Amino acid sequence: MEACIPLFTSHYSIGKSILTFDAPDTVKETGADSIIKICKDYNITDCVTVEDNMSGFVEAFKETKAAGISFCFGLKLMVCDNIADKSDTSFKSEHKIVIFAKSQEGYKDLMRIYSLAATEGFYYIPRIDFQNLRRLWTNNLDLFIPFYDSYIHKSATAFSTIVPFFDFAKPKLFIENNLLPVDQIIAKEVQRVAATSDYKLYHAKTIYYKLRKDFEAYMVYRTIFRRTTLDNPNIRHFASPEFCIEAWKETLL
């Protein structure tokens, strides 16, 4: 297993992160933290981002290039059995994947996939199914299984029987430890799948904010978008301040 990879998510994934792609010299002490400045401050030469949509790609590409930082963009997308099916059965088949663009052509291919998911597949959120994913897949893309909300996560914690069809690509697996009660349960299943399917494991940490002390501000931000309260946020995986670059830095020690 390789060194822990920070997986940044920005404010473009609406309601998920309090980080921006602002240029470092525009960041104010009392304002939002910038992924670009974090990369500079922590000597991160490869900026890996995972977003829920394609909106932030242009700004992220421009600012990482200006800062001399390598940029890798991943789209987290919901997969279901059939995008034409809007029933409860279809909802129960949903699980998430992450698709990375390996090149400029990969970005175009990723846009085609997202465009279909956000139009024909849209059901509250963009969705894709394996039939269309297989049809649109190219060698310019890389497939990863996220640690949370994947078919493995659902299998480990909800006794789900989702069967993915990865006959078009060999996925890689992210494994994380954010000190959540379910992390060890999910990790055990991820390791089992990796061993039985010969999938490569990548140690990673999802980053939504800079420091642990920012967790309170992050909580307020999330509850505003969910229209809930801090007393009852009703948000999954909302019990740990470890989704930050401070916690990632400690994995290197």
Main beta sheet, described? 7 strands, mixed, barrel
Q: What is the assembly state of the chains in this entry?
A: single chain
The helical percent reads: 25-40%
Distance between the termini: 16 Å
By helix and strand content, what is the structural category? alpha/beta
Low-pLDDT residue intervals, each spanning 5 or more residues: none
Average pLDDT reading: 95
Number of helices: 9
Give the strand line-up of the largest sheet. Answer: 1-2-3-4-6-7-8
Describe this structure in words.
This protein is of the alpha/beta class and 253 residues long. 34% of the residues lie in helices and 19% in strands. Strands 1-2-3-4-6-7-8 form a seven-stranded mixed barrel, surrounded by five helices. It is globular and about 45 Å long. It is built from nine helices and eight strands.
Keywords:
seven-stranded mixed β-barrel, 8 strands, 19% strand, alpha/beta, 253 residues, 9 helices
